[in-house]
Write a structure and sequence with these properties.
Layout: H1 2-19, E1 38-43, E2 48-52, H2 64-75, E3 81-83, H3 86-94, E4 107-109, H4 110-118, H5 123-133, H6 137-150, E5 157-158, E6 171-172, H7 175-185, H8 189-195, E7 199-202, E8 211-214, H9 219-222, E9 226-234, E10 238-247, E11 250-259, H10 261-281
Antiparallel strand pairs: 1-2, 1-11, 3-4, 5-6, 7-8, 9-10, 10-11
Helix pairs in contact: 2-4, 2-5, 3-5, 4-5, 5-6
Length: about 280
C-alpha cells in the first residue's frame, strides 16, 4: 500500500507539473527577441513571462541606487536636510560618473536628493545620502547588504551606494533579485512617485541653487503605463534597465542586464506589450 501510495503521489505530481503553465523563456516562439545577457520579467500575480540567465551573478551598475533609495526611505525623514560636501562632488567627478550637478555647501532635503539620485543618477547625491545615513559610506553599505538579506536577495552583494566600478564593480546581483527588489520598492509611494517622474525642478532658495533633473529612463516617454524604474551603465555591467509598467490590471517588472543603449528601451517596451497580450489571452 505504501508503494502504491507513493506511485499515485508521484503520478499526481507529474500531472500537476505538466498541466501547470510554464514560464516564458528566450526560446518561446511568441516572445520578443532579447539581446541582453540576462533578462527576467514577472507580474504581480507571480507569473514569470520571460527569463534568460536570470540567476547569473553580474554587476548591475546604477541599478544599485534602487537599494540606496530603499534604505534611505527607511532611515530618513523626507524633510531632513543634508549638506553637500566637497567630497560628495569630488566622488562623482573623480570617477567620471553622472551627477546631479550638486555644489559643496548646498543644503537639500532628502526628498529632493532622492530625485537627484534616481533621475539623473547622481553619484554626488548617492555619496551625500550614504555618508549621512550610514553614518559613513561603509556603514551604509552594511545596511544595504543587511536589507538585501532581509528581503531574501541571496545572490546580491553591494560594495558601494552607486554601482561605480570601484570597489569590485559595485558588487553583484541577478535579474531575479533586482525584480524582487523593485517589487518591494514600488510598494513605497514616495519611491514610486520619484521613479515615475520625467522631470523634477528644485527652485532656488537661500541654501541651494535651482536644479532641474530629467529622468534617464526613456521608456517613460515611449510607452504607456510605465512606472519607472532605473537605468544603469558601466563598462563591466553594460547598459542595464530595471523597468515596471501596468498591463492587464497587473504590475509588470522587468530587468535587462548587459544590453545595448537604445535597444534596452525598445526591448522593454516590446516585453511589456508581450506580457499584456499574454495576460489578455489568459
Amino acid at each position: 500500500m505504501r508503494i502504491a501510495g507513493f506511485i499515485s503521489s508521484a503520478l499526481l505530481a507529474l500531472v500537476v507539473g505538466v498541466s501547470s503553465a510554464a514560464p516564458a523563456t528566450a526560446a518561446d516562439a511568441d516572445a520578443p527577441a532579447v539581446g541582453a545577457r540576462t533578462a527576467y520579467v514577472i507580474d504581480s500575480a507571480g507569473t514569470v513571462h520571460f527569463d534568460k540567465r536570470e540567476t547569473a551573478r553580474v554587476p548591475v551598475a546604477s541599478l544599485v541606487k534602487v537599494m540606496t533609495a530603499y534604505v534611505v526611505l527607511r532611515e530618513a525623514e523626507l524633510g531632513d536636510t543634508v549638506k553637500v560636501t566637497a567630497a560628495d562632488v569630488r566622488h562623482a567627478v573623480r570617477n567620471g560618473a553622472t551627477t546631479a550637478s550638486l555644489k559643496a555647501g548646498e543644503r537639500l532635503t532628502v526628498r529632493d536628493l532622492l530625485y537627484g539620485l534616481m533621475l539623473p543618477s547622481g553619484a554626488d547625491a548617492a555619496n551625500a545620502l550614504a555618508r549621512t545615513y550610514g553614518p559613513g559610506k561603509a556603514g551604509f553599505v552594511r545596511k544595504m547588504n543587511a536589507t538585501a538579506r532581509s528581503l531574501g536577495l541571496a545572490d546580491t552583494r553591494y560594495t558601494n551606494a552607486d554601482g561605480l566600478p570601484a570597489p569590485s564593480n559595485g558588487g553583484y546581483s541577478t535579474a531575479v533579485d533586482q525584480a524582487k527588489l523593485a517589487q518591494r520598492a514600488l510598494a513605497d509611494p514616495t519611491f514610486r512617485t520619484v521613479v515615475g517622474r520625467q522631470v523634477h525642478t528644485v527652485p532656488k532658495t537661500a541654501v541651494h541653487r535651482s536644479h532641474t533633473w530629467r529622468n534617464s529612463n526613456k521608456l517613460l516617454t515611449s510607452a504607456d503605463g510605465v512606472l519607472g524604474v532605473k537605468t544603469g551603465y558601466t563598462r563591466a555591467a553594460g547598459f542595464c534597465l530595471l523597468f515596471a509598467g501596468e498591463r492587464g490590471g497587473r504590475q509588470v517588472v522587468g530587468v535587462l542586464l548587459n544590453d545595448q543603449n537604445e535597444r534596452r528601451f525598445s526591448t522593454a517596451e516590446r516585453l511589456l506589450n508581450y506580457v499584456g497580450d499574454q495576460i489578455t489571452l489568459g
